[in-house]
């Protein structure tokens, strides 16, 4: 039975953030429907919100320690024996430190494991560049067979997790933001992997965003409306397979927004599609401009990259001149 969503639960998810919603609440519904579930972490149980799950289901939990590559190997063995492994730690350690194991076990061997990468983008703040995950979408996109999901709010993160458990494919889920994640979806709605969601109509330009940037895209669209520009906003929650049918070729401008390097992520995927179609529509890719930054809190870093709502709107206006 699907996890039920109502306004009260959506508000609770929002307060817990994407990670807390999945591992503090939704996983208890999932484990009832998935008796072969096995949850693995690289010494990140408490920070992932898994304490209550560990207490109630110790036989389904494995703390592998700070040994992410080994965690992938253990999970592959469990998967081969009929378990449904869910692995979680910081996104940068899953995508970069464990890249070879992800490629071999999930890509080449096509084992149906679910990776949940938390703290993506700049969410790790003062932990610095070693903990920032600004390349994970590019890495995961490039590995055959892996589905790549990037939810925009906590409710969508729960929907993505539930769908990832049910499909017969290896999946990577990228979690962004922290506690008190902005709430976009307040009631239940149909969710489908690979099917983008239009959350704002607009005639002039199209903004395609992913992760917590979707909320900022909506705010920027409202600012643009005051300037007489009508902006459509698309929540591109699945990066691979990309819903190319949602990309409008009849707008003055397409804008992509992501908390990721502009190379290889959402903007890169949209650019590849436009090029393959020979489309003449102009594309503005907003994200992290292929650079490392000094440590700071997440909001400061996003501002340095021009990823506040005001700066996004200003950049779009400049491009339209």
% residues in beta strands: 15-25%
| Mean pLDDT level | 96
Distance between the termini: 51 Å
Q: Strand order within the widest sheet?
A: 2-1-3-4-6-5-10
Task: State the oligomer.
Answer: single chain
Q: Helical content, roughly?
A: 25-40%
Radius of gyration from CA coordinates: 19 Å
The major β-sheet equals: 7 strands, mixed
- Given the helix and strand composition, which structural class is it? alpha/beta
Structural shape: globular
SSE order, one letter for each helix or strand: HEHEHEHHEHEHEEEHEEEHEHH
Tally of contiguous helical segments: 11
Flag low-confidence runs: none
Q: What is the tally of beta strands? A: 12
List keywords for this structure.
7-stranded mixed sheet, 5-stranded mixed sheet, globular, 12 strands, 321 residues, alpha/beta, 11 helices
Structural features, described:
The chain is α/β, with parallel strands linked by helices and 321 residues long. Helix content is 40%, strand content 19%. The chain has eleven helices and twelve strands. Helix 2 links the parallel strand 1 (37-41) and strand 2. The chain is globular and about 60 Å long.
């Amino acid at each position: 039975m699907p996890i039920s969503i109502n306004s009260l639960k959506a508000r609770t998810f929002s307060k817990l953030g994407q990670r807390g919603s999945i591992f503090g609440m939704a996983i208890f519904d999932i484990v009832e429907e998935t008796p072969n579930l096995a949850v693995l972490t690289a010494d990140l149980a408490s920070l992932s919100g898994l304490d209550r799950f560990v207490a109630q289901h110790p036989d389904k939990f494995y703390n592998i320690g700070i040994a992410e590559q080994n965690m992938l190997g253990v999970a592959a063995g469990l998967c081969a024996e009929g378990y449904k492994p869910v692995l979680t730690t910081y996104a940068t350690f899953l995508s970069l430190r464990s890249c070879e194991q992800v490629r071999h076990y999930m890509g080449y061997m096509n084992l149906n494991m679910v990776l949940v990468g938390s703290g993506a983008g700049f969410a790790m703040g003062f932990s610095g560049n070693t903990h920032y995950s600004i390349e994970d979408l590019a890495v995961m996109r490039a590995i055959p067979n892996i589905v790549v999901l990037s939810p925009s709010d906590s409710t969508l993160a729960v929907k993505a997790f539930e769908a990832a458990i049910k499909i017969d494919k290896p999946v990577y889920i990228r979690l962004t933001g922290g506690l008190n994640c902005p709430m976009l979806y307040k009631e239940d709605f149909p969710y489908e992997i690979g099917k983008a969601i239009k959350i704002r109509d607009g005639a002039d330009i199209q903004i395609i965003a992913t992760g917590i940037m979707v909320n900022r895209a909506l705010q920027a669209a409202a600012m643009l409306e005051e300037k007489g520009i009508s902006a459509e906003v698309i929540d591109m929650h699945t990066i691979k397979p990309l819903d190319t049918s949602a990309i409008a070729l009849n707008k003055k401008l397409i804008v992509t927004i992501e908390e990721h390097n502009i190379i290889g992520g959402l903007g890169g995927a949209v650019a590849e599609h436009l090029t393959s179609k020979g489309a003449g529509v102009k594309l503005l890719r907003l994200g992290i401009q292929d650079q490392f930054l000094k440590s700071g809190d997440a909001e400061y870093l996003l501002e340095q990259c021009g990823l506040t709502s005001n700066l996004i709107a200003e950049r779009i206006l400049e491009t339209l001149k």
